[in-house]
Specification:
single chain, alpha+beta, 3 domains, four-stranded antiparallel sheet, 17 helices, 4 strands, elongated
């Protein structure tokens, strides 16, 4: 069996390999079927050693009890049975199960919350892996969010977490427990100033983003993950600029090695137009910012 086949192919292989094993796992939890169907991949991501080839691994697996199989993938059966059934259709299901296993393994207090929750949304587990907060009030709220709103909420929480780490602060219990407290906390946390940027603004064309607040609102407007650069903006290793003309875009400059262009993207991470690119390269030349790396990645042609 190949480990790089699709999840559906893994499931077919599992059915063909041992229908009795499939039925046993399906009876325990449909999520267990999905996890075991790609268990080699999960083990590799968790850095567990696999000393035998795939066929031998399947042969050994079919002889294990369900409890031992759950131990192998690092997710107790009682947790698998709490996962919202709608998550079965997620295209990122295996990755989300890996996040769940990592949280249970590495984050004791979050792991305890997962063990006692009545229902678990898998995006809650993936957020727990990204955010160093063990406040049950926060996760109780996140776990109630609909999938179509959870993504943007988690992006904001990651932004808060990034800035807290960059400024030597920690999450306080009760900081976020609903949408209102999230907005209040976000406003308070992002009010930080970055070091004065090294490169000159061109007013109304390319201008530096100088505060966490500006970065957060620009990232929201442009629908990108720019807020995750906050910690590096605070320590001065990155500068983020906004292009305002001929059209809006986000420009990321690394300050090491004399300054070089890391990336530049229009709204929703789309590529720059040729007019935007001309303006950007002229600005880089005037500020002695290298754009060799950016161009060599093949995103544009001169």
């Amino acid at each position: 069996m190949q480990t790089n086949t699709s999840l559906d192919q893994h499931e077919k292989n599992l059915r063909d390999f041992d229908i009795a094993l499939y039925n046993r796992l399906e009876a325990a939890s449909p999520f267990l079927v999905k996890a075991v169907a790609d268990f080699i991949h999960i083990q590799l991501c968790l850095q567990k050693s696999i000393s035998c080839d795939t066929e031998d691994a399947w042969e050994a697996l079919r002889k294990l009890s369900t409890k031992k199989i759950c131990g192998l993938i690092g997710i107790p059966l009682k947790v698998l049975r709490k996962i919202d059934p709608t998550d079965l259709g997620s295209p990122l299901l295996v990755d989300e199960l890996i996040y769940l296993s990592k949280v249970l393994r590495d984050k004791t207090r979050c792991g305890k919350w997962l063990l006692h929750a009545k229902v678990i949304q898998l995006n809650t587990a993936s957020a727990m892996d990204l955010i160093d907060c063990d406040d049950a009030k926060l996760w109780n709220w996140v776990n109630t969010l609909e999938p179509y709103t959870a993504g943007s909420i988690i992006d904001l929480l990651v932004g808060i977490d990034t800035i807290l780490k960059a400024t030597g602060r920690k999450w306080q219990h009760g900081m976020v427990r609903d949408a209102h407290s999230l907005a209040r906390t976000y406003e308070r946390v992002i009010c930080i100033s970055f070091p004065e940027p090294k490169y000159t603004d061109t007013p109304h064309v390319i201008e530096a983003i100088r505060t966490g607040r500006e970065l957060a609102f620009w990232a929201l407007e442009q629908r990108n993950c720019g807020v995750t650069f906050a910690s590096r903006c605070v320590n001065g290793t990155l500068c983020v600029y906004r292009m305002l003309s001929p059209d809006k875009a986000t420009i990321v400059i690394a300050t090491e090695c004399g300054g070089w262009l890391v990336d530049a993207k229009s709204k929703e991470n789309s590529d720059l137009s040729y007019q935007q690119l001309d303006v950007l390269l002229d600005w880089c030349r005037s500020n002695n910012v290298s754009f060799k790396y950016y161009m060599e990645r093949g995103l544009h042609e001169l």
